[in-house]
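name: query_chain
kind: protein
chains: 1
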Amino acid sequence: CGNVSAVYTQTITIVDTTAPTWTTVAGALDVTLECSDAAGLAAAQLLFPVATDNCDSDVTGIVKVTGVFVPGATCPEAGTYTNTWTVTDNCGNVSAVYTQTITIVDTTPPTFTAPADITLCRDITGAYDRNVTNTGDVTNEADNCDTSLDAGFTDSDADMGTVDAVGVITRTWTLTDDCGNVTSH
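structure:
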């Protein structure tokens, strides 16, 4: 008879309430570097995590917050950088924070050149033929990270001779950097 019913409407609502997730495993970008490894630090700062999303196929809008260097309490050349990332999909869902920790260490001892060995003679009265307190000084102090080495020297003298015999003075020069790495000669 040609009678038409009223229109029945079905509404299918598509929503995206799922935040993007990180496919880069937590901790995968963490690195430990020697404090003098500038190239390694630069490379570590360029690392980036990868994300995926259930609906948005292009989750490349990752936002990085670069952390500042936090020096160690007892070793200012060592410390950490903590970088974080988040990513937002097209529907405004924000991922969890991805964290990268770059740990800076100083395990390399300083270097220096000790004075050359010298021979001192004593006479029968015990007097040396030259000033034993001026037997030379160290040179070429260097460290991969610490720039204030000259304050870190200690030396020890041990007079093992007797008045009527040849004496031996042993002088040990020890250089310690800010991170506790020690070199002795």
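note: The radius of gyration is 34 Å.
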